[in-house]
Fold this protein.
Amino acid sequence: MALEQENIEMLYRWLLKCSKETLVGKPNQFYIDTLCTDIKDFCCGGQWNGLDQTYRGAWLGEIARRLEIAFPDAETGVFKNSKDTFVKRKQIENL
């Protein structure tokens, strides 16, 4: 599945929630907070829709890299989805 505007906005909301609820004071909070800022500034609000595939690919690679720093174990649950089950880092990277 290609990462679309609605997916990137959902990812932003859940990472923000994760940072505020579970990462306060932990070293990986910095990575998630800065990633949230970048996603908000560069991907949300419709800007993502106008990007070509090369630029989107670069962004997806950067998101995956930062998630790997914050959550080194690919099996780590990053956030809960609407079915209240944990979404793992490796699942996010495969969106």
